[in-house]
Amino acid sequence: MEDVVVVGGGLAGFRFAQGLREAGYDGRVTIVSDERHLPYDRPPLSKQLLAGTCTEEQCALPGDAPDVSWVLGRRAERLDRGRQVVVLDDGTEVAYDGLLIASGRRARPWEGPVPASGVHTMRDLADTAAFRSEIGPDAKVVIVGAGFIGCEVAATLRKEGVDVTVVGVAPHPMPVMGPEVGARAMRIHEAQGVRFRLGRGVAGFEGEERVTGVRLDDGELLEATVVLVAIGSLPNSEWFADAGFSMDQGVVVCDATCTVLDGDGQPVAGVLAAGDIAAWPHHHGEGAVCIEHWSNARDMADLAARNLLLPVGERAAMAATASVPTFWSDQYDVKIKSAGFLRAADTWTIVEEDVEKPSLLAEGRRGGELVGAIAFNMNRSIIGYQRQLVAP
Ligand SMILES: Cc1cc2nc3c(=O)[nH]c(=O)nc-3n(C[C@H](O)[C@H](O)[C@H](O)COP(=O)(O)OP(=O)(O)OC[C@H]3O[C@@H](n4cnc5c(N)ncnc54)[C@H](O)[C@@H]3O)c2cc1C
User: Fold this and answer.
1) Atom 3 (ligand 1): residue with closest C-alpha?
2) CATH assignment of 109-229, given 3.40.50.300, 3.90.1150.10, 3.50.50.60, 3.30.565.10?
3) Model-level pTM?
4) What residues are paired with 215 via a beta bridge?
5) Would 377 disulfide with which of 138, 181, 204, 359, CB 3.0-4.6 Å?
6) Which residue's CA is the nearest one to ligand 1's atom 50?
7) What atom in ligand 1 is closest to the CA of residue 77?
8) How do residues 26-62 score in pLDDT, each as one tens digit?
């Protein structure tokens, strides 16, 4: 193998290239990214970078940048599988004999009309800078979407005393954690002064040049000087949509070795995928699952780097420990950690709780079987669950 091409300059692409070099691969590696920056870490965007407690430079990913050819500010437009080339937006063709698909996701935009300014999403450095620049002392911020990013941004802004209202369609915030944990999380936020409008949708935005409010579907009008739309993400899969790969909800499906599968479910030699753009067969999922967590991107990239250098039949599967998804989130002085595939749970039980600290430990089960655990300020407890939840 002489020419490895990576499409996507995020965590997965960066780690993969580091892994190839660590494994002794000395052929060409080209990373194509439509961002102008070298890869950086996204978790601080809604936390430290937004708070101003770290700089853009301090969002660098761990470890030295790998020795590769960087093609920055260029988008992959098309994959020609027959000729083994990636076609870029300026018509350049980049030939590969090994390819990593690591193009991740983008913020899901609001589908209806929005005022010309004041309505933001958050996925990259520029998004955080633009949103931050509009938050003055009298800002009234409405966050549309009560998932992790929405709640993290609410926490970051409330620590500065900014007026924040969070709107969400589910009856509790961060719905993947279940109603019991969600209700506790909501109380923590409310104690810090966040207002919630839950179980409600957004009908539209008020204002033409600049946003002035958010109209809810029950008619209530929330005054807003700045809005963050945090309603999930969309996969960046358009560039390989015609390549004949197996796809699920817009992401490419791999086997447990991170090798991409074709439409017949057969591994495609030389083509692997990692991170937020890839689904793989987790034992608690129904079919392949896409896990949009930092640690999943890292683990898949590490494995893909080892496997690309091996023939398809000799590739290692996701190691048992790496197959347990883990997630963290920082909100106020609460460190949220999870283990397992939380979406699989049909019931959640709080097994330990200290409201004053606050801390809690919750177990998620499906049909009685443990599938996930969540801890607030109980980091050590989650390690035990990581061990329990490894693939059989
Ligand atoms: C605000 C925020 C906070 C987060 N906080 C946490 C957290 O606390 N804990 C946690 O576990 N996870 C968190 N995450 C999720 C985590 O950051 C992602 O799981 C991780 O970034 C996925 O990495 P990736 O490399 O797969 O994709 P991405 O980071 O999306 O990188 C993909 C890269 O490919 C580029 N690209 C896309 N299409 C093309 C194309 N056609 N051609 C060229 N380049 C292309 C993109 O611009 C991007 O640079 C957070 C995410 C965000 C946005």
Assistant:
1) 43
2) 3.50.50.60
3) 0.96
4) 204, 221
5) 359
6) 43
7) 41
8) 999 999 999 999 999 999 999 999 999 999 999 999 9
